[in-house]
Amino acid sequence: MRVLHCHYASGPDEDHEKVRTADVSVALVWGLIVAIAGYAVVRVVQHLLFPEPDPAALMWSAHAGFFWRAWTVAYAGGMAAFAVFVAPHRTGLAARALAPGIAVAASLLVLQTIFFP
To answer: Which end is more exposed in the chain, N or C (fewer Cβ atoms within 10 Å of the end residue's Cβ)?
Structure first.
């Protein structure tokens, strides 16, 4: 038996837009997760390999470490978001992995804050 669907409520274009919106949303969230986790990792690496001078002894510096770290991880997050967005038919898998990804990023940031302030 063939069932006829009414396309007045939601047509094929509207369904396609919903899927595309979900793809963009998942990609953006993954970009934020990568940026947050990346910041924690970059901060630890920078703290271990390139110790900063004492701020009380330093009068002026042309290098602001926070801004360079922030721009670097924002760029990495943008690349990750693009990669997730163009991955073929992986939105469901990426969406299911969001909760563990958020937990890992938050854990990395908390550990970085505690051990490498």
So the answer is: N
What are the tens digits of pLDDT across the range 49-106?
Answer: 887 666 655 556 666 778 888 999 999 999 999 999 988 777 788 889 999 999 999 9
Beta-strand runs (E) in 4-88 = none
In eight-state DSSP terms, residue 97 is T
Place of tokens 């992986």: 90
Q: Token digits for 85?
A: 């967005």
Give dist(CA 34, CA 77) in Å, integer: 5
**Does some domain include residue 11?**
no
Look up the domain containing 107 and give its range.
21-52+62-115
- How many domains, the chain? 1
CA triple 89-72-25, angle to 5 deg: 30
